[in-house]
């Protein structure tokens, strides 16, 4: 008999060499774009020089973040959110229920009479 609520097994993680190769490729592409920005500083006129300089300064910051961004497909999904029902805990302490008017309701009775 199969369990209808069983989750599928998570996919196998990428090999370390494949992961390093992918990160290096992403970082190298970003650094190539940065070098193009430096060359364009010499070629483009006016305020475009400032745009290329800002891009050349900011690209390394983002290149590291993009290269270190892990593949989300290989990770298992987060645990499901709990349902809206109450969380029930077993306890030896007495239960005290207070209604919206501030009256105490015994755990044995459902209403409080005054």
From TrEMBL:
Region (Disordered), start-end ranges: 70-89
Protein source organism: Helcobacillus massiliensis
Protein name (database record): DUF3099 domain-containing protein
Organism ancestry: Bacteria, Bacillati, Actinomycetota, Actinomycetes, Micrococcales
InterPro entries the UniProt entry points to: DUF3099
